[in-house]
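input
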Amino acid sequence: MKHLISIFSLLLLLTTQGMMANGKKTKDKKPNIIFFIADDMTRNMFNCLEEGKGKNLTPNIDFLAEEGTIMHQQHVSATVCTPSRFNVLTGKYASRAENPGFLRQSRKNNKQRVVEWNTHILPGEQNLINVLKASGYNTGAVGKNHVFEVKKYKKIPLSADASDKKVMDQQLLNYKLTIEAYHQCGFDYADGIFYENPDFNGPMDLAVHNLDWSTEAALTFLDDTDEQPFFLYFATTIPHGPQKAERAWNADRKITPIGILDKAPSCLPDKSTIPTRLKEADVKVNDPKANLLWMDDALGALIHKLKDIGEFDNTIIYFFNDHGQYAKGTIYQGSVLNPSIIWQKGGFEVGNHCEALVSNVDFMPTIIEQAGLNPKKYDYDGRSFATILEGKEQKARESHYFEIGYSRGVRMGDYKYIAVRYPQWVMDIDDEQRQTILDDYNKILAGRGKAPNNLDPQAGFGHVQIVPGGGDAEFPATQRYKHYSDADQLYNLVDDPEEQNNLFNDPKYRDLARKMQVELQKHIKTIPGGFGELKTK
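output
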């Protein structure tokens, strides 16, 4: 009996020591971080927002929202895919990009920097990934690229034949070059990567979404993290188009950008279960709802894996949509106001809902601070809001800055000022050139299976693309905002949240309009590139 008691006491001591050691290890270990970024979600896709409440089957997003913090006043500085990702991963305004293609376009525009799908992160530049890697994080990425510069990448058209060996050799080389670019920018691991959206990723035969393929790569990364803290950048290609079932949630999941797999990944629920689960939840069965549930399944797979490997309690999860969709390609609130969700086990001291005005350039300094680093040591335009999440007060910015294409803007308190300035070559375009530009653009849309948005060559140019009526992404906004073409716009966001009443030329707002212009000039003065008469050098 004494012998048994001694053995039991020894086992109890060892167990207690192990628990203490594990507790110390968890306490001392830096938090893991997952940054999950969706592509072109609309507000009615979020059950946690009034527009979508109860309309979607997204149990995992709902879980993050219920236990984490919804940043209701999260803003985006630049409102199309590439510059928004640039903002997130560098903490800088996209006008600061230095990739050669972006600078060439700037020279064409008399040194005015035109932010669109052209702002890329270069190897060697400071970014969130290489900062975390240098501090001991294991860094991984899956999903959509669209922001890291890939040198020698050769674009392959949709019309290319995927059965042609030369085509697929180039497709595989493109993939290899993309992975190398990820490594050069700080990632230890990258796989399951789409260079861009499916329609711009190679032959039509391979131009489908495959979230299972990217999720499988993410789970592989999580399985191999060992004792290091990790950072996973998970960028989905959905709900962005193509949304049709046969090219999205119900596509053949053996199809990838690098060819046809021998066997489809089995890391997510079978696609056949998606409509069944939607029906059971009394949610409409259509392609947008199905794609959203598919994406939610991917998030769920990450959560389950974190639990399996014992890292769930020590992981912070960011859920962010790249920009608002209602006014994509503009700096109206329908695009720049874009809530995010931040989760940690047990929630944050600030509570479930936060109304603090923050920007997507703030993600990098916030994550750096959460990783135990000093955010003041690094160079960016953002500022950490980690203290806000901790429930502490933080002095608000005097203003928020926005930029896209040929427009710039600031928000100060309840007011927004927008300025649109085109370089001289745009102003000199004559009627014949307008018609040619429009015809050529509509041919491009036809090649992608789309009908023209506009047939009027005299329609105003877009804020992003010099096309009558605007480019495909921004066209809806040209119809929704009646002062879209005004060079100067001033809105009261409380009285006029839809930004329909331009106050700029109202004598009662003359002083405020000038004050807002001066505030915009403070921002653009520190950022490369000119901007009409507001910044001539």
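quick obs: The longest strand covers residues 230-239.
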